[in-house]
Amino acid sequence: MQMPRPSEESANDGSSGSGSSANTRFIPLRPSAGNPGGSSLGSGQQNHSGFGRGSPHAIPQKDLLHETLLRLYDNALFQNPQYQLFSNPPAPTKVLDASFGTTSWAVDFARAFPLIDVVRMDATKNMEAGSDPAYPPNLSFVQGSPSDNLPFASRTFALVICRVLFIGVPEKRLSGLISEFKRVAVVGGFVEICEPYMIVQRCGPIGAALTETILQGMTMTGSNVKIAASLDALLESHDFLDVRESMRSIPINWGGPIGSTYWAYFLKTYLALKPLLTAPGSIFPAMSDQDFAKTLDRAGKEYAACRSYVNYFCAYGEVAESHKIE
After folding, report:
1. Who's near 102: CB < 8 A, 6+ residues apart?
2. For 106-141, what is each residue's pLDDT tens digit?
């Protein structure tokens, strides 16, 4: 199967090519004419709107990051120009969700595009989603980790999407993982990778201490905490065509619903990492649950006062016909 190329108009989205990097300048969330910081990549006109789930208190904890990203990109589920093809696919079409975390993206995509077969890789699930009424009938699960060799035939998927996975994969394995994404994508299909730049910008002493401890733990596993700023270069090094990259900034506990939702996600993450953050020799050694909760409350107020934010990168590239199947 070979996907037809999108029109020049749909591809001309004003996004940047290679060479983007994280910096300390806050990029406005919504693009506007004459605003070089914005990008039309995330326009809700591309996808389907209406995925929002209300205030952070009404959002299940497992969906907090997904909801943050929906708000960041104006309800767009993906950024490449293939959206035109998914509404009326030219042939039986499959999409692979190889992201870290919950099934929220795959469920929303399957509901938005009922003619597309969506496959979700999941380390814990091994079932036919159609047998569960909670899932759309065009969504199926394959048990396994996206960091392993992918258990799919070559040239299977029109879109392979991977969100918030690379920051947890040892850097030495990233090239092989991208090669696998390329192998299972059809000619003319796309691979899209989205990652946060893990260094929080403009934070105070508590936020800086929390960030430093988490980054140290990630570095010890071999992860590259700055990998988000190199997504375009990774795709270009594997000979993808027309590589595009965008960056948007997510406020932490300020800036309206998106900031409060992202802070709720941060808070959930910090609570899950309490054993690391309060271990002997750590920044908050032997801190009680009550004192730790108070510290996190101060961190949230500090993020708001400092106008802290995280830069989020998204890059995609097209699979060329000349790509060899490895």
Report:
1. 62, 63, 66
2. 999 999 999 999 999 987 765 545 456 778 999 999
